Each structure stands twice: as structure tokens, then as C-alpha cells.
Amino acid sequence: MACSLTELPPPLSCISIVAIIIVYVIICYLVIDLIDQNENRSEKNCSGLSPEGLQAMNCFYYHKVGSESICAICLDSLQNSHICRAFPPCGHIFHCQCIDPWLANNLTCPTCRASFGVELHLYS
User: In what residue span(s) does the RING-type domain sit (predicted)?
Assistant: First the structure.
């Protein structure tokens, strides 16, 4: 005894249609909420230093006698007279042309993930 939609009594078919519409609206709401959450996460992750903040950080000519250091961004060695910046909280050194785009999008050290606004306290 199969039953089709045309055989259902009119009130039951109306209830079925309303239930389908309610489920559709709930699914649309959940999808829109998920998209909004992803946009908020990407905005939080892409906040970095402003151009004025980058200019406030000091550049210097790298000079080290002994073992060479490596820029963790480009993986090239830091050589004497390269223009570099030191990341303030941890002191890691990078080429200016490497660290500037990084700091425009991230506020953490590429080597140790120290936060730009938090000073590291090392205990001996």
C-alpha cells in the first residue's frame, strides 16, 4: 500500500512542505554562519604591522665574526653588510626584505613564534 503526495490529506501535505522549507532555512543559516566565521578567522590571522610600524623598527648592517647565521625566511646566510632587522622580543635576525612582508601579515617570529607584543623573559 504505497502512498503518494497526492493521496495525502491536504493538511498533512502542507505540514510536509512547511517542514521542508524550515529545514532549508536552517541549513542556509548554518552555511552563512560558517562562511562568516571563516572570514573573521582570516581577518584575525592577516593582521600585521602597519607601514609606519615597520619604519619604526631599526635596520642595521649585519656584522658577525665567526659562525654565520641564516635568515629563516629565505634560508640564505646572513653575511657582513647585509641590511637586517632583529625581531624585538626574541632578537632573531632576518634580512629586511624578508622580514618586512612577513611582519605586514604576521606578528610572530618566523623562527620561534614569539609574539611581537610580548617580551620574552629568559631565566638562567
Answer: 71-113
